Amino acid sequence: MSEIDAQPRDVPEPPPTHAGAGHFLWQQLPYAVALLLAIAGVAYTNVSHQPLVGYWEFLALAIGVVCVITKWPETQGRQMRIRLIWTQALHWIAVLITMNIMLVSGVQQMLPTPATGLVLLTLLALGTFLAGVSLLSLQIAFLGLAMGAAVPAISWLKQSIFFFLLGAVLLIGLAISFWLRQDGRPAGAATRAQHQTEA
């Protein structure tokens, strides 16, 4: 009987399947979409020389929703979830108010039209990065850094190199997230194996 009990312990864990990789990519999809939308807005602003005011406001609200969804499963209890919603709502309302201050006619007279789009993107990037820091979310903080990197990229690069640079930043961020996820897996497997041997 003891030999039968010992057999399941000797069987190694099956290697991670493609479903695990697909699930990981599905989790990273909101961040990739937000970054692609930011790149699209930057590209349009660069080509048309017109600020996309409503576009950046919509993107700020969308990223705020992503922030809440990201931390929702980790937040326990009704009171903590209400606190999460309120803190993120106040954070993003402050970002939206700051964006709209930059659009006041007196401020607009001091800034050329292409610069307004860059300022709005900078504020959105800063708000995203600070939200990632407060939520302790690597993906959200990286999204803010990637959007911030787009600002000097627009100023310095006018050709397709700009898109390759942002694509490289996106791939590096996904690789870092995947690497951190892989680092957590062996520890969990070792803990399970230790519990099984103790049993």
From TrEMBL:
<feature type="transmembrane region" description="Helical">
    <location>
        <begin position="53"/>
        <end position="72"/>
    </location>
</feature>
<feature type="transmembrane region" description="Helical">
    <location>
        <begin position="29"/>
        <end position="47"/>
    </location>
</feature>
<keyword id="KW-0812">Transmembrane</keyword>
<keyword id="KW-0472">Membrane</keyword>
<feature type="transmembrane region" description="Helical">
    <location>
        <begin position="119"/>
        <end position="149"/>
    </location>
</feature>
<protein>
    <submittedName>
        <fullName>Uncharacterized protein</fullName>
    </submittedName>
</protein>
<feature type="transmembrane region" description="Helical">
    <location>
        <begin position="84"/>
        <end position="107"/>
    </location>
</feature>
<feature type="transmembrane region" description="Helical">
    <location>
        <begin position="161"/>
        <end position="180"/>
    </location>
</feature>
<keyword id="KW-1133">Transmembrane helix</keyword>
